[in-house]
Design a protein that fits this description.
Blueprint: H1 2-20, E1 40-43, E2 49-50, E3 64-68, E4 71-72, E5 77-80, E6 87-92, E7 100-110, E8 119-125, E9 142-149, E10 161-168, E11 185-188, E12 198-205, E13 208-214, E14 225-230, E15 240-246, E16 253-265, H2 274-277, H3 280-307, H4 315-373, H5 381-422, H6 424-453, H7 455-459, H8 473-504
Antiparallel strand pairs: 1-16, 2-16, 3-6, 4-5, 5-16, 6-15, 7-12, 7-16, 8-9, 8-15, 9-10, 10-11, 12-13, 13-14
Helix pairs in contact: 4-6, 5-6, 5-8
The structure holds calcium ion (2 copies).
Membrane topology: Single-pass type I membrane protein
Transmembrane segments: 476-493
Subcellular location: Endoplasmic reticulum-Golgi intermediate compartment membrane
Length: 505
């Protein structure tokens, strides 16, 4: 019976792999071209962990050891909390000696800063790197590390990045340059503060190491995209899997939700039957242990609820909830601020418009007056040119302003549309962007207001010297056209803005 279920599972995995291996998704299995070439894939529970019963009542993780500041809980392992200078790691208790394998790691790296530090690493090394300076694990490792480097140490603006770094036990990791000269493969991906967990699929098949990433923007677990591939990658025949993380002056929560290991077998090769690998006594022992653990857990849960009827969840979760509450409050405050700023902008634009009207009427009067008193042949060309240039600039600035406004409103719209689905961090980020955008708009409006507040002094139309002059028809026409365009543009913008305001507030 067990064998037939196993066969069904292998068949299901094959179907999934066939789907994954289509050419548009990249070459998952290093040269596999079709379903017949896809490797067999078998889940290895002894080198894996996942919720909802990830840790035991004493805080240990079955088949894994954890060190440093790592905090296992029922549904995740917090490798480091978001405090300064933390280090933590988890490692398999036993070595793995599969020729081909695939690891799926699901994690979240989240923090309130725009930047975070230092990052998270997934390891396959000959020894357990229980503690050290490389993302919380030992340096000079023998094997391979896949680094999710959040912090841009060398200031080249190329982080967050994902790197594959191999080491034969002699290399010292170049932290100050983000390992840029040591990486065998790399890709730039922002893996911090995503609405869904990040998934990394690391495949070692036929001596090629491939890293595929699901970037956490979608609930679709199979939505992987290619990150990097290293051919002819030599790693130890036998080693430990590990995940480590560290924080520095900046800090993120580094939470791993699951680590799933699959043994890959090339088509045509015999899979060792699971019974041969797990002796019956051991299997029974684990089964018994599991049942005992389950019963004990239920008892403790009941006892805890009786003792603390008003306490829900663990203190860590309470902290989480308060952070979420704060974020929601920030979103609402942000929205109110945007509303106020838009109102203020509206007032300032109305002022500019009044100013313009006054300006135009003064100029028109002046021209009419001078047209009547002018002698033919002379043109107040300098002043008129100044006026026309300044009008054109005003028009251009107003157009820019209108565009900025449309952008802002579009952003507000998109935030409101995705607000609920996308999660709080993403929303806060959007609002920050909008806030910055509005500041730019505000500055340019102030600039405009300043320009128009004292423009009469600068251009000094009414105080023109009483020299005899006349206005050519061409100049007058240009002036009239410019003014018309200006008014038309403003009225269009204003009606658009009002329509948009009605739509969103
Ligand atoms: Ca770094
Ligand atoms: Ca960098």
């Amino acid at each position: 019976m067990a064998v037939s279920i196993e066969q069904l599972r292998v068949a299901a995995c094959l179907v999934i792999l066939t789907l994954l291996c289509n050419p548009s998704n990249g070459d998952v299995a290093g040269g596999a071209a079709g379903a017949t070439d896809a490797p067999h894939r078998r889940f290895e529970y002894k080198y894996s962990f996942k919720g909802p019963h990830l840790s035991q009542s004493d805080g240990s993780i079955p088949f894994w050891v954890h060190t440093g500041n790592a905090i296992p809980s029922a549904d995740q392992i917090r490798i480091t909390p978001s405090l300064r200078s933390q280090k933590g790691s988890v490692w398999t208790k036993n070595t793995v000696s599969f020729e081909n394998w695939e690891a799926e790691v699901t994690f979240r790296i989240s923090g309130r800063g725009r930047m975070g530090a230092d990052g998270l690493a997934v390891w396959f090394t000959a020894g357990q790197g229980l503690e050290g300076p490389v993302y919380g694990a030992a340096d000079s490792w023998n094997g391979v590390g896949i680094f999710f480097d959040s912090f841009d140490n060398d200031g080249k603006k190329n982080n967050p990045a994902i790197l594959i770094v191999g080491n034969n036990g002699k290399l010292i990791y170049d932290h100050q340059n983000d390992g840029s000269t040591q990486a065998l493969g790399t890709c730039l991906r922002d893996f911090r503060n995503k609405p869904y967990p990040i998934r990394a699929k690391i495949t070692y098949y036929k001596k090629s190491l491939t890293v595929m990433i699901n970037n956490g923007f979608t609930p679709d677990k199979d939505d992987y995209e290619f990150c990097a591939k290293v051919d002819n990658m030599i790693i130890p025949h036998e080693g430990y899997f590990g995940i480590s993380a560290a924080t520095g002056g900046l800090a993120d929560d580094h939470d791993v939700l699951s680590f799933l290991l699959f043994r890959l077998t090339e088509p045509g090769q015999q899979l060792p039957p699971p019974e041969a690998e797990i002796p019956k006594e051991e299997k029974d022992k684990y089964q018994e242990e599991f049942e005992n653990f389950q019963q004990e857990l239920d008892k403790k849960k009941e006892a805890f609820q009786k003792e603390h009827p008003d306490v829900q969840g663990e203190p860590v979760e309470e902290l989480y909830e308060s952070v979420n509450d704060r974020e929601i409050r920030q979103v609402f405050e942000g929205q109110n601020r945007i509303h106020l700023e838009i109102k203020q902008l509206n007032r300032q634009l109305a002022m500019i418009l009044d100013e313009q009207r006054r300006y135009v009427s003064v100029v028109t009067d002046e021209i009419a007056r001078r047209g009547a008193a002018a002698e033919p042949g002379q043109v107040p060309s300098q002043h008129l040119d100044t006026i026309i240039t300044s009008q054109q600039e005003v028009l251009k600035n107003l157009n820019d302003l209108r565009n900025s406004f449309s952008d802002t409103l579009r952003q507000v719209a998109s935030v409101q549309h995705q607000g609920n689905a996308a999660g709080a961090y993403e929303t806060v980020q959007h609002f920050n962007d909008i806030k910055e955008h509005l500041h730019v708009v505000k500055r340019s409006v102030e600039h405009l207001a300043q320009r128009n507040g004292g423009p009469s002094e600068k251009v000094k139309c009414p105080e023109l010297p009483p020299m005899p002059s006349c206005l050519s028809t061409t100049h007058f026409l240009i002036f009239v056209v410019v003014q018309s365009v200006l008014f038309f543009g403003y009225i269009m913008y204003r009606s658009q803005q009002e329509a948009a305001a009605k739509k969103f507030f």
